[in-house]
């Protein structure tokens, strides 16, 4: 079902949304925790993280469909499954932080804010790991072994 869209694999299409939204959620989390005047944007960051969290299982399922077409992607699939869990955890922690901040500051809010930072950093590292392994699975050594195409001079 989550295989092709207009003849193109769905996986890279969804992944592009995830690799934009998750780093935005990571940076947003760090900002709303570290900069007091940005705290009102916690809800917006939670919405961004939630959108990414909704897309993560779609990326995973479409990756499995792509795997059936092109073969095993190696460690990329395992790292992607881990990212699904960590990405959803970030969204949950951000919603909890949003709710706690509506009630005012307190020790529990500080603990959840610290947990949000740790989770965001884990997500950031895992996004890199998944992306790097996906690029290697897709491109292998192609980029390192091929010569750049020569650009023809239009004046010739």
TrEMBL record:
Keywords from the UniProt entry: Membrane, Transmembrane, Transmembrane helix
Membrane listed as a keyword: yes
Q: Which Pfam family, giving just one, matches this sequence?
A: DUF2231
Bilayer-spanning residue ranges: 13-34, 41-59, 79-100, 107-128
Tell me the ranges covered by the DUF2231 domain, including all copies. Answer: 7-146
Specify the superkingdom. Answer: Bacteria
Protein name as catalogued = Putative membrane protein
Q: Which species is listed as the source?
A: Georgenia muralis
């Amino acid at each position: 079902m989550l295989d092709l869209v207009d003849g193109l694999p769905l996986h890279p299409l969804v992944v592009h949304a995830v690799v934009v939204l998750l780093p935005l959620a990571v940076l947003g989390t760090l900002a709303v925790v570290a900069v007091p005047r940005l705290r009102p944007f916690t809800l917006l960051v939670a919405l961004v993280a939630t959108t990414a969290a909704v897309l993560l299982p779609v990326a995973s399922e479409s990756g499995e469909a792509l795997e059936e077409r092109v073969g095993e992607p190696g460690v990329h699939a395992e790292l992607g499954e881990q990212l699904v869990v960590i990405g959803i955890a970030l969204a949950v922690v951000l919603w909890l932080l949003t709710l706690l901040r509506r009630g005012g500051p307190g020790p529990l809010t500080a603990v959840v804010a610290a947990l949000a930072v740790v989770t965001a950093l884990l997500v950031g590292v895992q996004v890199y790991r998944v992306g790097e392994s996906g690029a290697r699975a897709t491109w292998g050594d192609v980029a390192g072994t091929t010569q750049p195409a020569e650009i023809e001079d239009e004046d010739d």
